[in-house]
Amino acid sequence: MESPWLLPYLAVKLVVYVAWCRVGYAWLPERPRAEHAAAFGVLRFAIGAMVGTGIWVGSTVVWVFLARELGVESEVLTYVLVYVPVRMLEWGIVGVLAYGRPPRGWIVGGVVVSVLADVPMVWSLGWHLPLGRFLC
Protein backbone atom coordinates (compact mmCIF):
# COMPACT_ATOMS: atom_id res chain seq x y z
CA MET A 1 0.00 0.00 0.00
CA GLU A 2 1.48 3.27 -1.07
CA SER A 3 0.05 6.22 0.79
CA PRO A 4 1.55 9.33 2.35
CA TRP A 5 -0.88 8.69 5.19
CA LEU A 6 0.61 5.33 6.23
CA LEU A 7 3.10 6.58 8.83
CA PRO A 8 0.66 9.08 10.39
CA TYR A 9 -1.97 6.33 10.39
CA LEU A 10 0.34 3.97 12.27
CA ALA A 11 1.26 6.74 14.71
CA VAL A 12 -2.42 7.43 15.37
CA LYS A 13 -3.07 3.73 15.95
CA LEU A 14 -0.21 3.53 18.44
CA VAL A 15 -1.33 6.64 20.34
CA VAL A 16 -4.95 5.46 20.42
CA TYR A 17 -3.96 2.01 21.69
CA VAL A 18 -1.76 3.45 24.45
CA ALA A 19 -4.51 5.90 25.43
CA TRP A 20 -7.13 3.14 25.53
CA CYS A 21 -4.91 1.00 27.76
CA ARG A 22 -4.54 4.03 30.05
CA VAL A 23 -8.34 4.31 30.18
CA GLY A 24 -8.47 0.67 31.24
CA TYR A 25 -6.06 1.31 34.08
CA ALA A 26 -8.17 4.25 35.23
CA TRP A 27 -11.05 1.78 35.76
CA LEU A 28 -9.02 -0.35 38.17
CA PRO A 29 -9.24 0.25 41.91
CA GLU A 30 -5.46 -0.02 42.27
CA ARG A 31 -4.03 2.02 39.45
CA PRO A 32 -0.70 0.78 38.09
CA ARG A 33 1.83 3.24 36.75
CA ALA A 34 1.18 4.93 33.42
CA GLU A 35 4.24 3.22 31.89
CA HIS A 36 2.41 -0.10 32.16
CA ALA A 37 -0.45 1.28 30.10
CA ALA A 38 2.05 2.47 27.48
CA ALA A 39 3.70 -0.95 27.37
CA PHE A 40 0.38 -2.71 26.88
CA GLY A 41 -0.61 -0.20 24.17
CA VAL A 42 2.60 -0.99 22.34
CA LEU A 43 1.90 -4.70 22.84
CA ARG A 44 -1.57 -4.27 21.29
CA PHE A 45 -0.01 -2.45 18.34
CA ALA A 46 2.53 -5.28 17.91
CA ILE A 47 -0.17 -7.96 18.08
CA GLY A 48 -2.06 -6.13 15.33
CA ALA A 49 1.06 -6.01 13.19
CA MET A 50 1.74 -9.72 13.69
CA VAL A 51 -1.84 -10.79 13.05
CA GLY A 52 -1.98 -8.64 9.92
CA THR A 53 -1.08 -11.43 7.49
CA GLY A 54 -3.78 -13.68 8.88
CA ILE A 55 -6.26 -10.84 8.60
CA TRP A 56 -5.29 -10.35 4.97
CA VAL A 57 -5.83 -14.04 4.20
CA GLY A 58 -9.07 -14.12 6.21
CA SER A 59 -10.52 -11.03 4.58
CA THR A 60 -9.64 -12.39 1.14
CA VAL A 61 -11.33 -15.72 1.86
CA VAL A 62 -14.44 -14.01 3.25
CA TRP A 63 -14.61 -11.57 0.33
CA VAL A 64 -14.38 -14.41 -2.22
CA PHE A 65 -16.97 -16.49 -0.37
CA LEU A 66 -19.42 -13.60 -0.13
CA ALA A 67 -18.94 -12.72 -3.80
CA ARG A 68 -19.04 -16.24 -5.26
CA GLU A 69 -21.46 -18.03 -2.98
CA LEU A 70 -23.81 -15.24 -1.95
CA GLY A 71 -23.39 -12.75 -4.78
CA VAL A 72 -22.51 -10.02 -2.28
CA GLU A 73 -19.50 -7.79 -2.89
CA SER A 74 -19.23 -5.76 0.28
CA GLU A 75 -16.08 -4.33 1.76
CA VAL A 76 -17.99 -3.21 4.85
CA LEU A 77 -19.51 -6.65 5.52
CA THR A 78 -16.12 -8.31 5.00
CA TYR A 79 -14.54 -5.78 7.37
CA VAL A 80 -17.16 -6.47 10.05
CA LEU A 81 -16.97 -10.25 9.67
CA VAL A 82 -13.16 -10.38 9.82
CA TYR A 83 -11.86 -7.35 11.70
CA VAL A 84 -14.36 -7.12 14.54
CA PRO A 85 -13.84 -10.69 15.85
CA VAL A 86 -10.07 -10.46 15.41
CA ARG A 87 -9.98 -7.17 17.29
CA MET A 88 -12.13 -8.63 20.06
CA LEU A 89 -9.50 -11.37 20.40
CA GLU A 90 -6.58 -8.92 20.25
CA TRP A 91 -8.07 -6.61 22.90
CA GLY A 92 -9.06 -9.64 24.97
CA ILE A 93 -5.47 -10.91 25.00
CA VAL A 94 -4.12 -7.51 26.01
CA GLY A 95 -6.87 -7.15 28.60
CA VAL A 96 -6.08 -10.48 30.24
CA LEU A 97 -2.36 -9.74 30.28
CA ALA A 98 -2.83 -6.18 31.55
CA TYR A 99 -5.76 -6.51 33.93
CA GLY A 100 -6.23 -10.18 34.67
CA ARG A 101 -9.94 -10.01 33.98
CA PRO A 102 -10.70 -6.92 31.89
CA PRO A 103 -14.12 -5.31 31.93
CA ARG A 104 -16.05 -6.49 28.87
CA GLY A 105 -16.88 -2.87 28.08
CA TRP A 106 -13.19 -2.10 27.87
CA ILE A 107 -12.70 -4.81 25.23
CA VAL A 108 -15.68 -3.58 23.21
CA GLY A 109 -14.40 -0.02 23.56
CA GLY A 110 -11.02 -1.17 22.27
CA VAL A 111 -12.69 -2.55 19.15
CA VAL A 112 -14.55 0.74 18.70
CA VAL A 113 -11.40 2.85 19.03
CA SER A 114 -9.60 0.51 16.62
CA VAL A 115 -12.34 0.98 14.03
CA LEU A 116 -12.39 4.75 14.57
CA ALA A 117 -8.60 4.87 14.19
CA ASP A 118 -9.03 3.32 10.71
CA VAL A 119 -11.25 6.17 9.52
CA PRO A 120 -8.42 8.60 8.58
CA MET A 121 -6.77 5.96 6.36
CA VAL A 122 -10.06 5.00 4.74
CA TRP A 123 -10.81 8.69 4.16
CA SER A 124 -7.36 9.24 2.61
CA LEU A 125 -8.15 6.48 0.12
CA GLY A 126 -11.40 8.10 -1.01
CA TRP A 127 -13.60 6.14 1.41
CA HIS A 128 -12.47 2.91 -0.21
CA LEU A 129 -12.06 0.23 2.44
CA PRO A 130 -8.99 -1.73 1.40
CA LEU A 131 -9.04 -5.04 3.16
CA GLY A 132 -5.86 -6.69 4.28
CA ARG A 133 -2.75 -6.30 6.30
CA PHE A 134 -2.59 -2.54 6.92
CA LEU A 135 -5.76 -2.32 9.03
CA CYS A 136 -4.32 -4.19 12.01
How confident is the prediction overall: mean pLDDT?
A: 84
Strand content: under 5%
* Total individual domains: 1
The sequence of SSEs as H and E is HHHH
Number of H- or I-type helical stretches: 4
- In helices, the fraction of residues equals over 70%
Query: Which consecutive residue ranges, at least 5 long each, have pLDDT under 50?
Result: none
The secondary-structure class comes to: mainly alpha
Radius of gyration: 16 Å
How would you sum up the global shape? globular
Distance between the termini: 13 Å
| Major sheet description | none
DSSP, total strands:
0
Textual characterization of the structure:
The chain is mainly α and 136 residues long. The chain has one domain. Helix content is 76%, strand content 0%. The chain contains 4 helices and no strands. The chain is globular and about 50 Å long. The two termini are 13 Å apart. The relative contact order is 0.19. The model has no long low-confidence stretch (mean pLDDT 84).
